[in-house]
């Protein structure tokens, strides 16, 4: 039976009729009086660190949202309002890693307008070892009889195109 196979794969145990008759398991935590059912199920019976929840006999977990006092929030807002903001400009740029002169545009801080494109330094092309016809005939041709020079050049092209980002290259 397919459903039995799925249950076996997922390691689901068959329920006994006796255990299905019982509505609540003895190991199951009881919801304390005064705690909403939704709150109890969302916290899996592990409440926040508030005193009310602790008094109900529930464990302490850190709050999801950070708690700060309003004075520190206002102080941070005042500091942010007094800070000078940077001006942003829409600029064209040319990626120095490209040789075709293609121009793109993006937002950039005005004070950094003369900086080179920051991602150009990441784009490095690898330089593969090349071979001449003599080197191919002397060294490579004899390695594999069914392998042609065109196939070797194609392999070299693919290796250069994908920057040798493969652990194994196999035909």
TrEMBL record:
GO cellular component: NuA4 histone acetyltransferase complex; Swr1 complex
GO terms for biological process, alphabetical: chromatin remodeling; DNA repair; negative regulation of transcription by RNA polymerase II
Composition bias type Basic and acidic residues, residue spans: 1-36
Residue ranges, annotated region (Disordered): 1-46
Record-level Gene Ontology MF annotations: transcription corepressor activity
Subcellular location per the Swiss-Prot or TrEMBL entry: Nucleus
Name by which UniProt lists this protein: dAMP1 SANT/Myb-like domain-containing protein
Upper classification of the organism: Eukaryota, Sar, Alveolata, Ciliophora, Intramacronucleata
């Amino acid at each position: 039976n397919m459903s039995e196979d799925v249950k076996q794969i997922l390691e689901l145990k068959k329920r006994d009729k006796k255990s299905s008759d019982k509505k609540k398991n003895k190991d199951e935590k009881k919801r304390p009086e005064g705690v909403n059912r939704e709150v109890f199920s969302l916290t899996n019976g592990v409440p926040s660190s508030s005193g009310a929840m602790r008094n109900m006999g529930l464990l302490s977990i850190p709050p999801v949202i950070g708690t700060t006092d309003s004075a520190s929030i206002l102080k941070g807002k005042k500091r942010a309002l007094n800070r000078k903001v940077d001006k942003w400009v829409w600029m064209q740029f040319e990626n120095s890693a490209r040789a075709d002169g293609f121009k793109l545009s993006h937002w950039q801080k005005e004070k950094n307008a003369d900086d080179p494109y920051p991602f150009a330094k990441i784009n490095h092309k690898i330089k593969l070892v090349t071979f001449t016809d003599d080197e191919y005939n002397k060294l490579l041709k004899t390695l594999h009889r069914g392998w042609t020079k065109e196939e070797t050049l194609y392999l070299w092209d693919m290796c250069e195109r994908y920057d040798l980002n493969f652990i194994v290259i196999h035909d």
